[in-house]
Amino acid sequence: MSTLKKIIHSLAIPVLVAAILEGLCLTQGQNIITNAKSFDNFVVYTAIVMITTMALSINLNSGRFDFSLGSMAALSSVIGAEITYSALAGGKGSAAMMLIVTVAVGCLLGLISGAIYVALRLPPIITSLGVTLIYEGIMYTITGGKYLMKEVQNSSMSAFANTWVYAFIIILVVLIFMVVVFEKTTFGYDYAALKSGQKVSINTGINEVKNALICYGICGALMGLVGFLNAARNTTINGGQLNFGSIAIMFTAFLPMFIGGYISQYCNEKMGFLLAAICMSLLNSTFAVFSNQVTASMQSIINAVLLVVFLIYLNNINVIKRIFKR
Amino acid sequence: MSKLKKFKNTQMLIATLPLVALIALFFIFCGVIQTYGYRLDMYLQIVFNEAVVLAVVATGAIFIYTLGTFDISLGASTLFAATLGVTVYNKTESLALMILVLFATGIACSLFNSVLASVFNIPAFVTTVAMMSVLSAIASQIITTDGGALGGISIPSSVVKPYSGIGFKAMLLIIYFAVCFYVFQLTKTGRRMKFIGGNPLCASLTGIKANKYTIIAFTMAGIGVGLGAFLTLTYTPSVTTQTASSIGMNIFIAIVFGGMPISGGPRSKIYAALVGGFSYMLLNDILEIVIDSSAAYGITQVISALFFMAVVYITSMNYRTQALPR
Fold first, then answer.
1. Contact assignment for A134 to B297 by CB distance below 8 Å
2. PANTHER family annotated for this entry (chain B) (predicted)?
């Protein structure tokens, strides 16, 4: 396939989605992105979805189902906000400091999660259940089950969320980081080998434990970033999420993960995730346009139906092709 | 003693651990209640009422887990069934119709999942994630429309009072468990499900149709959901958006706590959910009584998670692999 064809195929879904959604918005006499504020929201949400999708895919592609992603994002942002507030009291540089602390704490939480998995040698789905409960419990204990507001409501955080520039820089940095680490390093080659053939890879001398720990560390750092972005966007952190209340965050990444996987037939996988995140963000912006008619419940239903329809298409593509050939 | 005999003895000892843990937790619970001077009969009723719903829904879920897949929408299905049941009762004032709707909804939700999984070849865990969103959203919409944002919908408590006694609930639990035990342990269906869960390729080559058993498994789980919804209403005759919200994930905990591997297959045990469900609820209630502070919920959850992982680690000691499990 020529490069031009690859580019056209890669952009087909986002362009089609944008055209359909813009058409829908025009029926209301509006556009998907109505002003500078909605564009800022669009870019920040794209960053959140892209990073969550990448974090989910790291372990899921290796057959490791990780329920703890949401709890890592929530706990790291709570710790990041508390540390930053105690040091700067919401003053200048709060956003930058919270970003660094949250990512570092997220990375540490990811490493702890990975270490538990490696040490106990239990299926990751089980250890992630335990880790989720632990992280949620710690978060509840720190916050007393309350929302964190004063810690994240300051001029520095507002300045961060009220422009698309920082989120755009984060998207670029994460994209480059992920491409380089997973496709240009020994760790990335080992990861790909372990993904396709665990036993053979181990027999060739690849250190699976080290590779898994790095995966969990990166996953945690990415979810720390998501926690920070969510805190900046929502201007609050819900510290009272118990009984797996935090896992909803990972479910939002399923649809973009499958769309990204489909697009990656024609381009780099990580680029596919970015394009899928743009589609999801366009949908989110359209929901904002239709906020009077489409409730939060309706949005959940639409997202879920889209996921199922897309998967029916993906898993039955050959049957569909055969039907149309007749 | 030969190595084989020693291995068998160790395995038997480990297999009895979940039951030993349940008995130990029961006596600890009684001891704690006596120490604090609370009424034992009242607290036992609370534990039973909480655990019986989890045990019933999780026992049905064992059939799905045995096939090597999982369903996290069962909590949402229970909420949805209870919501429709209450709505139907309030419109018709017919208890029989309400019960019929509870079971029909539970089975229909489950069958819909199985059709998506077996006919459209979508991974079951993804369909259940989508279903969880859809069912919760529809139930929330009905509850907030009919009962207001903060309230809920309810039926008069006198309607379910005759069925709220421990004896009646225990009888329902025993009957449902006996049916499940019969199907799981004493019929071809149960054996074939374990075969499919253990080695789907081999099962398929011997002529076993996985689709048929997927539908049976989801139907059994659907009956559990219907019964769980009925038991929920007999305990609290009102439904809010939070009703049964944690059941979907607690099923994982109950099953693993009861000594069954999450991967299903021949080592699946039908009693695991019963033992695990009651153990988990006893443990939670013990901790909530002992740790009496504003942060108690958080600390309780952390200790529960640690205990959960310790039990799972010990019960799976015989099944460690050199490669990291996936």
1. no
2. ABC TRANSPORTER PERMEASE PROTEIN YPHD-RELATED-RELATED, AUTOINDUCER 2 IMPORT SYSTEM PERMEASE PROTEIN LSRD
Domain limits of chain B?
A: 42-314
**For residue A276, what are its two tokens?**
């899928």
Q: Are A275 and A10 in contact (CB under 8 A)?
A: yes
Chain A hits for B313, CB-CB cut-off 8 Å, are 120, 122
- What the block records as the tokens of A258 is 């499958």
> Mind giving me the DSSP string for B81-126?
HHHHHHHHHHHH--HHHHHHHHHHHHHHHHHHHHHHHHTS---HHH
Cα distance between residue B91 and residue A145, in whole Å = 38
CB B75 within 8 A of CB B246: yes
Instruction: Quote the pTM value.
Output: 0.87
ipTM of this complex: 0.86
Please tell me if residue B288 touches chain A, with a CB cutoff of 8 Å: no
CATH dotted code for B42-314:
1.10.3470
Q: Residue A199 and residue B323: Cβ atoms within 8 Å?
A: yes
**pLDDT tens for each residue of B33-78:** 999 989 999 999 999 998 999 999 999 999 999 998 888 889 999 9
pLDDT tens digits, one per residue of B173-211: 999 999 999 999 999 999 999 999 999 999 999 999 888
Would you list the domain boundaries of chain A?
36-250
Distance, CA of B189 to CA of B248 (rounded, Å) = 25
According to DSSP, the β-strands at A147-148 and A237-238 are antiparallel
Contact A137 B309 (CB under 8 A): no
How many whole angstroms separate alpha carbon A278 and alpha carbon A144? 36
Q: In 3-state terms, what secondary structure has residue B228? A: helix
pLDDT at B227 over 70: yes
CA–CA min distance B227, chain A (Å): 22
Q: Based on C-alpha coordinates, what's the Rg of chain B?
A: 20
Q: How far is CA B180 from CA B89, B114, B271, in A?
A: 29, 19, 9
Query: What are B238's strand-pairing partners?
Result: B154
Give the residue on B whose Cα is nearest the Cα of A258. Answer: B126
Could you tell me where the beta strands, DSSP code E, fall in B235-278? Answer: 238-239
Interface check A205 vs B, CB under 8 A: no
Strand B238-239 relative to strand A237-238, pairing: unpaired
Contact A281, A42 (CB under 8 A): yes
pLDDT in tens, A124-180: 988 998 999 999 999 999 998 899 999 999 999 999 988 999 999 999 999 999 999
| Chain A residue with minimum CA distance to B261 | A123
